[in-house]
Amino acid sequence: MQPGINKTLFMGIVESQRSGESVDGILGNKVRVIQALKGYRVSEDAIILTWFARPIAHERIMDAGTGCGVIAFGMAIREPSIRVIGIEIQKDLAHRAARGARLNRLDSQVLIVRGDVTKADRFFRHRTFDMVVSNPPYYEPGRGRINLEHEKALSRHQLMMPIPLFFGVSGRLLRKDGRLCIIYPASAAGGIKNALKETGFRMSRMLWIHPHEGAPAGHVCMELLLTDSMVSVSEEHLFLYDQSHRRSPYARAILAGDYCSG
pTM above 0.90? Predict the structure, then answer.
């Protein structure tokens, strides 16, 4: 074993990693996630959403479609007093997320549940969550090539979690003035805004994510409030690279998890 490596952590990684999997450091190695070598793997979208969502002390948060658990883990180390329930329908992903919670010593703070997010309002009490956060499937069936690897296909396409249905379930699970935070293609933002009219949500914050200054946004993070009151919308912009094709300092800090307390 190399000098400086924590023996307990090293043994935890060895015990957690299985054939066909990797254990990867995320958020500047503040957390580790267990991922399939072939299958859906953590993207920048999830890491940016982890930064965009702002957990408040002692909140109860649902990570809908938690995948390997990266958003749940990142939020938990950012605010140690919160409790996060990660829901994942895919057996292998849910199992990796549960093992990841133990690997990161977050199993007292993060609970992984295997289940269908679109039915979550049937097995969780209504009005019990302060925030629902999700990096949902982006593509509607019939749009975009369906990936031949089933795990990637379910994660990228709305095969199991149609957005209108997801909004309805989230609205029943959230307390009044609760928040729903998602990331979505910027080109579909108009459709999201139209869908809000019948959901009880109001747009609160938007973060437009651009490849670089002068380029159109590729994705947008949105915070939606479950409220009857009028809400003023705050809009910001994040540029991932500078004109020299280097990471912008702001993006570099976000991806390194410099905002985290852990």
Answer: no
